[in-house]
Amino acid sequence: MTATMTDTPPPVAPKADAAAKRQGRSLGQILMIVAGALLLVAAVRVITGANQLDSAGQISAALGLAVPIGLAGLAGLWSERAGVVNIGLEGMMILGTFGAGWIGWQSSPWLGLLCGIGFGVLGGLVHAVATVTFGVDHIVSGVAINLLALGATQYLAKLFFVDGKAADAGGNPKQSPPSDSLPNFDVPGLSDALQSVEKHHWFLVSDLAGILGGLVTNLSVVTILAVVLFVGTWWLLWRTPFGLRLRSCGENPIAAESLGVNVYTYKYAAVAISGGLAGLGGAFLSLVTSHIYLEGQTGGRGYIGLAAMIFGNWRPGGLAMGAGLFGFSDALQLRNGGVTVHALLLLLVVLLAVLAGWKLYRKALWQGVISAVMAALVLVWYLVTDEVPGDFVGATPYVVTLLVLSLSAQRLRMPKADGMRYRKGQGK
């Protein structure tokens, strides 16, 4: 009996090995996708001659546009991992833009940044009180916060920016006076070296130089902070006991409560952090993008952030890729107009064709046929035109949002208790 027990292997080791193998396969798949995307973009650039497609300027602009979307998506991830749907991200971003613009012009942009975060936290706490304490439907509460934030900031702007010192400094009912800039920086030596390689337009080499150059040129300190927050979120939620308890509240709060987890506390903390991150995204728009608070400044980025979070399957890595994609499409239409977006049509043809082949291989006949037909139609559009109409160019980010969500919908897995009402002791 003793020998048998001694020779029996522990049951945990095979599971750990299997988990490590799955992580290794996932990392390998991500690297293959990134490499394939880089080759595809390089080929499209060479074929179409659209050298701005992955230039350092394009990537730098895309990064700047992706940061507020990514922070909004990260805010949604924190909230929904704890089981609270946060449709109010747009309103919390609006509060962040106002708080940062209001304090930023009166004192310093650093205090404005903190105030933007604080205003977002305030919006998050209101949402937590409504949904966690009083059990209000999460969607209803989020929509109400969006409406209240818009009305409150419009009223406060008329109150603080119309008369006196603010009016003399350039304020009016729709915008604040300008604030000082937060510091930007380049990586010394590396930016210039990559720029010289990019100018040769070599296949793949110049494309890689342009992408890396955009990631190390004219960086804002808030961009660096956003990267740290993404990495920190991954580590905190997936590598610590705190993160395990918080995610358990979004999967099965009754079971979490039975194990001694204070579900209300974790939900409140998650939604407050969610509001702060959304407020930081709004502050980025006020202090980095334009240096002023401007009415309507968020432009629906809170909703696009939610779409990026869903695309990323409620995980930081996928969310970052989704935010980068939306930022890239937005920068493409803002910087280059219809000519470069026209080159993007060829890229879309290839992606749809690959999707059609994959669906047909997986025996999903109708989906494969529809994807193939769409690829053929987009190819005809590309061949018979030289430039995409301006109205469609302006809608590019939203078209990309719908397309990405439609293509990724089948592999999604949201937290099981996301959006459900919870009452302490309801499992007894």
From TrEMBL:
Main location per the UniProt record: membrane
Keywords from the UniProt entry: Cell membrane, Membrane, Transmembrane, Transmembrane helix
Entry's localization field: Cell membrane
Name under which the protein is recorded: ABC transporter permease
PANTHER family, sorted: GUANOSINE ABC TRANSPORTER PERMEASE PROTEIN NUPQ, SUGAR ABC TRANSPORTER INTEGRAL MEMBRANE PROTEIN-RELATED
Transmembrane feature ranges: 27-47, 59-78, 84-103, 110-132, 138-157, 208-237, 268-294, 339-358, 365-384, 396-414
A Gene Ontology molecular function term of the record: transmembrane transporter activity
